[in-house]
UniProtKB/TrEMBL annotation, chain A:
It comes from the Bacteria. Pfam families: zf-HC2. InterPro entries: Anti_sigma_zinc_sf (IPR041916), Znf_put (IPR027383). Keywords: Transcription, Transcription regulation. Residues 6-39 form the Putative zinc-finger domain. This is Anti-sigma factor RsiW. The lineage of its organism: Bacteria, Bacillati, Actinomycetota, Actinomycetes, Streptosporangiales. It comes from Nonomuraea africana.
UniProtKB/TrEMBL annotation, chain B:
Residues 36-97 form the RNA polymerase sigma-70 region domain. It comes from the Bacteria. Belongs to the sigma-70 factor family. ECF subfamily. The keyword Manganese does not apply. This is RNA polymerase sigma-70 factor (ECF subfamily). InterPro entries: RNA_pol_sigma-70-like (IPR039425), RNA_pol_sigma-70_dom (IPR014284), RNA_pol_sigma70_r2 (IPR007627), RNA_pol_sigma70_r4_t2 (IPR013249), RNA_pol_sigma_r2 (IPR013325), RNA_pol_sigma_r3/r4-like (IPR013324), WH-like_DNA-bd_sf (IPR036388). The lineage of its organism: Bacteria, Bacillati, Actinomycetota, Actinomycetes, Streptosporangiales. Residues 143-192 form the RNA polymerase sigma factor 70 region 4 type domain. PANTHER family: ECF RNA POLYMERASE SIGMA-E FACTOR, RNA POLYMERASE ECF-TYPE SIGMA FACTO. Keywords: Sigma factor, Transcription, Transcription regulation. Pfam families: Sigma70_r2, Sigma70_r4_2.
Length: 79, 209
């Protein structure tokens, strides 16, 4: 099992969350997280960050653009 | 508007024939489902809301014109986003907001993040409040938008596609034509930066003096 220092762990955490680490490294990350409060909290905050990112304010096409596209689609089909 | 809006879109082998047959409800459903994400990604390349709207409009016009020739080598979603990225890049270049795409590699080669002092955390990162309250939630959203806007463009595009729009890493690699490893490094840098902004914010609201 690979042993990680905290700064090494922070570097590979995205790879860990993406499931892109080999077994040895993954075990090492899990072992480190189980006994390091700082890294455990860091990872928890990263997960919070990802979930907040996934809830963005709505974005909409301007009404005139929307209408233009709908009529372009209609005409595109007629020709 | 479209009968599919709100729910998920049907699979590509339903979407493509419907578009070719002129099914307006299907086209409207696609517009409703993807335009928001397309606008967000377009903003990484161009400087104004007006430009972003035009980029998305041109993208959809290209989709309308190209649907008969779509060969299904990628998903429809990947195809549409690729058209967007190409359209936005050209537009961005005209606005001389060119991204040095050849430097793509370099974003991933930064030295250590310096987040953790050698020897481990001197102080455990402070716990964050749960952003349940309406006011806090909207402040956090504003902060996230600022944090995204402040990222280097390539990081911003990757994190927008992955974490905001929910694309898979395969989709992002196909849309941007970058390697898996590169995608991951850009995503990592971006997430670390956004988390850092939130951490600073929560730190500052904790100490009102």
């Amino acid at each position: 099992m690979k042993r990680f220092t905290c700064d090494e762990l922070v570097e590979v955490i995205t790879a860990y969350l993406e499931d892109a680490l080999d077994q040895t490294a993954r075990d090492g990350v899990q072992a480190h997280l189980a006994c390091c409060e700082g890294c455990e909290r860091y990872v928890e905050q990263l997960r919070t960050t990802i979930s907040v990112l996934g809830d963005p304010p709505p974005e909409k096409l301007q009404a005139d653009v929307y209408d233009r596209l709908m009529s372009a689609f209609r005409e595109g089909q007629r020709s | 508007m479209g009968s599919f809006a709100g729910g998920g879109l049907p699979p590509d082998d339903v979407v493509v024939p419907a578009l070719r047959a002129g099914d307006e409800a299907m086209f409207a459903a696609l517009l409703d489902t993807w335009s928001g994400g397309l606008l967000r990604v377009a903003r990484s390349y161009v400087s104004t809301d007006h430009s972003a709207q035009e980029v998305v409009q041109d993208t959809w016009l290209a989709v309308i014109g190209g649907i008969d020739y779509f060969e299904g080598r990628s998903s429809v979603k990947t195809w549409v986003y690729r058209i967007l990225v190409n359209t936005a890049k050209k537009r961005g270049a005209r606005e001389s907001r060119t991204l040095p795409w050849s430097d793509f590699e370099q974003d991933g080669r930064a030295a250590g993040l310096g987040e953790v002092p050698p020897g481990g955390w001197k102080e455990v990162p402070a716990a964050w409040p749960t952003p349940e309250g309406e006011a806090l939630a909207s402040e956090v959203r504003g902060l996230i938008a600022e944090a995204l806007a402040g990222l280097p463009p390539r990081q911003r595009i990757v994190i927008t596609l992955r974490d905001v729009e929910g694309c898979t890493s395969d989709e992002v690699c196909a849309i941007l034509e970058i390697s898996e490893a590169n995608q991951r490094v850009l995503l990592h840098r971006a997430r670390v930066a956004v988390r850092g902004r939130l951490a600073d914010y929560f730190e500052s609201v904790k100490q009102p003096e």
